[in-house]
């Protein structure tokens, strides 16, 4: 009877540990999915931008949390025809968190807006906001959870996505994408 009880307890422990590991793995996968989807959307939008019509980005070690741009739709009588003004920005929500928002015709009566991610912290992973230093040693000072830098036609996008798990621990992932504007 004692042996049966020990085996039952061990089986329950193994099953519980396996279930916990599977839950943690699924949670991290959902963070990764949100991170990759958001950075892909931002990257694709900026790749189509006319580099002469990009505004708001800075040269490293400074960065910005928003970028405005227009895409070149084509030529008409030797002149470039641009699409509507667009922007991608970090917008604060609550508790040092924010979201990535894309807008077309920002501030206009015809403005359209879409949220691309809802779990972007105020600062990039391991960065302390507003202290004027590069805390995480990535050559950017005080970058936000969404940060843009630009040099020539090349834009670097830094993104952190963070969420609390069921135990209240904050888990985060970050990614950097470097794109070149098409025009």
Can you tell me about this structure?
This protein is an alpha+beta fold and 183 residues long. The chain has one domain (2-180). The protein has one helix spanning 2-47, and strands spanning 66-69, 72-76, 79-82, 86-92, 97-104, 112-121, 146-151, 154-164, 170-180. It has a 4-stranded antiparallel beta sheet with strand order 1-4-5-6, with helices on one face. A hairpin with a 7-residue loop joins strand 5 and strand 6 (112-121). The relative contact order is 0.19.
What is this structure, in a nutshell?
This protein is α+β, with helices and mostly antiparallel strands and 183 residues long. It is built from 1 helix and 9 strands; from the N terminus they run αβββββββββ.
The largest β sheet comes out as:
4 strands, antiparallel
Number of helices: 1
Radius of gyration: 22 Å
Helix percentage: 25-40%
Sheet/helix structural class: alpha+beta
Percentage beta strand: 35-45%
- Topology order in helix (H) and strand (E) letters: HEEEEEEEEE
Using DSSP, what is the number of strands? 9
Low-confidence stretches: none
| Alpha-carbon distance between the two ends | 77 Å
Q: How would you describe this structure in keywords?
A:
single chain, 183 residues, alpha+beta, 4-stranded antiparallel β-sheet, 3-stranded antiparallel β-sheet, 25% helix
């Amino acid at each position: 009877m004692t042996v049966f009880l020990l085996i039952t307890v061990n089986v329950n422990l193994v099953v519980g540990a396996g279930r916990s590991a599977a839950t943690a793995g699924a949670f991290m996968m959902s963070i990764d999915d949100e991170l990759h989807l958001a950075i892909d959307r931002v990257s694709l939008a900026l790749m189509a931008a006319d580099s002469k019509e990009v505004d708001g980005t800075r040269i490293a070690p400074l960065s910005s949390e928003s970028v405005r741009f227009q895409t070149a739709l084509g030529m008409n009588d030797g002149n470039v025809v641009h699409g509507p003004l667009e922007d991608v920005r970090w917008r604060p929500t609550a508790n040092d968190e924010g979201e990535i928002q894309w807008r077309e015709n920002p501030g206009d009566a015809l403005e359209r807006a879409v949220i691309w991610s809802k779990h972007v912290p105020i600062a990039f992973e391991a960065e302390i906001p507003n202290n004027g230093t590069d805390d995480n040693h990535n050559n950017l000072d005080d970058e936000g959870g969404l940060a843009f830098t630009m040099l020539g036609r090349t834009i670097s996008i830094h993104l952190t996505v963070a969420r609390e798990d069921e135990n209240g621990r904050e888990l985060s992932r970050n990614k950097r994408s470097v794109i070149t504007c098409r025009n």
